[in-house]
Design goal:
alpha/beta; Aspartate Aminotransferase, domain 1; Aspartate Aminotransferase, domain 2; 14 helices; 12 strands; 12% strand; globular
Length: 410
């Protein structure tokens, strides 16, 4: 069979928007891991942030019932009325706030609302600035750049349990600032903003009424360091805060693709974005999510308890490895150990070299700090473990990790 001939046609150039669009490196590393597994390598993976539990049985049954009932068509772009009402009650009730169904928009996952928000409150090429956490979910910076806004990183410090100094926020706000992105509990560090942090942020923002807030609270049901709290509870913050949450992490529904955003002023705008892009979220998934929210919560509670036990397990094991120090995460299912000394022990120039050698020499897959933005100046080298893995896998993987470091000790 003849090989296909190379085309002699010139491909037209791409837009600046397409050229600047980033990616989520967890999926890039996962491709590396899968390639090694296909070669017969034994890999313990800590790189993907999704629960390793099946979706609760009652939620599965609700999805099947929706299929059998013929609920296969389009829904209103903002979502079915029943789900919007349930989200309003659940999101509001757990935060001590009051919302109506008209404040809620349901999307195909929580992630699209990052782009919808940035596109709704900044103008392309106008110099509008977005302050976002670093390290942080890589899609923040990707969408800031793709939407032609100016990314302004605010650094999360290890000494502050991976919160930022409010004084840094005050210094970074300018007349061009249009949006502040907050994420608590936080990916990738597991850090969690405490009430005093939120009070300080609200006091600063009171002096800058032009700034919207995107509150990424997808891990709100996975908080361990005290009760979950939100900036929207502070005086004057509710109207300008977009609360973003979803079904993926709480009920192990990542593939069902259901997220929601809550903000009265922007709900009609988000609805138009969905009309322009997805038309609507899957109707089947919406009925399943309705059961997740309104049905029994024992599964979600057990899953949270399991993650808490795994957190304590992995932090204890990792802190026993020479050259490693790991803060206790306040929420989510990520650990963010400092590997600066371990890099020196193993002769690795930085965390990315360390990450690659850990994969190829020890069969352990993690992510490096550079997969979550630029390194925080003066804070050293870090890697991320997702402890959404069985305790047996945690013990095996951290055991290999420890052996890799110890092999290089004199």
């Amino acid at each position: 069979m003849n090989a296909p001939r190379e085309s002699t046609h010139v491909v037209p150039k791409l837009s600046r928007r397409a050229e600047s669009l980033g990616t989520e490196n967890a999926f890039v590393v996962l491709a590396e891991v899968n390639a090694l597994i296909r070669q017969g390598k034994d890999i313990v993976s800590f790189c993907i942030g999704q629960p390793d539990f099946p979706t609760p049985t009652n939620v599965q049954k609700a999805g099947i019932a929706a299929i059998r009932a013929g609920k296969h068509g389009y829904t209103p772009s903002a979502g079915i009325d029943e789900l919007r009402a349930a989200v309003a009650r659940d999101v509001g009730g757990r935060r001590g706030l009051e919302f109506g169904p008209e404040d809620v928009v349901v999307g195909a996952g929580a992630k699209p609302f990052i782009a919808y928000t940035i596109a709704s409150v900044t103008d392309y090429g106008a110099g509008d600035e977005v302050i976002y956490p670093v390290p942080g979910f890589p899609i923040y910076e990707s969408q800031i750049l793709a939407n032609g806004a100016v990314p302004v990183p605010i650094y999360l410090r290890e000494a502050r349990d991976f919160a930022f100094d409010p004084a840094d926020l005050e210094a970074k706000i300018t007349p061009q600032t249009r949006l502040l992105i907050l994420n608590t509990p936080h990916n990738p560090t597991g850090g969690m903003l405490q009430p005093a942090d939120l009070d300080a942020i609200a006091a600063i923002l009171a002096r800058h009424p032009q700034v919207w807030v995107f509150a990424d609270e997808i891990y709100s049901r996975l908080a361990y360091a005290g009760t979950f709290d939100t900036l929207a509870r502070r005086p004057g913050m509710l109207e300008r805060t977009i609360i973003c949450d979803g079904a993926s992490k709480t009920w192990a529904m990542t593939g069902w693709r259901i997220g929601f955003a809550v903000n009265r002023a922007l709900a009609p705008v988000f609805t138009r974005w969905i009309t322009n892009t997805d038309s609507c979220a899957s109707q089947i998934s919406q009925w399943a999510a309705l059961e997740a929210i309104t049905g029994p919560q024992e599964f979600a509670d057990r899953m949270r308890l399991s993650f808490l036990e795994r957190r304590d397990l992995i932090v204890g094991l990792v802190n026993a490895v020479p050259g490693i120090s790991c803060k206790v995460p306040g929420g989510a299912f990520y650990a963010w150990p400092n590997v600066t000394e371990a890099c020196a022990i193993t002769g690795c120039a930085d965390s990315e070299v360390f990450r690659k050698r850990l994969l190829t020499e020890a069969g352990v897959a993690v992510l490096a700090d550079i997969h979550f933005g630029r390194r925080v100046p003066g804070d050293g080298q870090h890697i991320r473990f997702s402890y959404a893995a069985a305790p047996s896998a945690i013990r095996e993987g951290v055991g290999r990790f420890a052996a890799f470091v110890r092999r290089h000790m004199k």
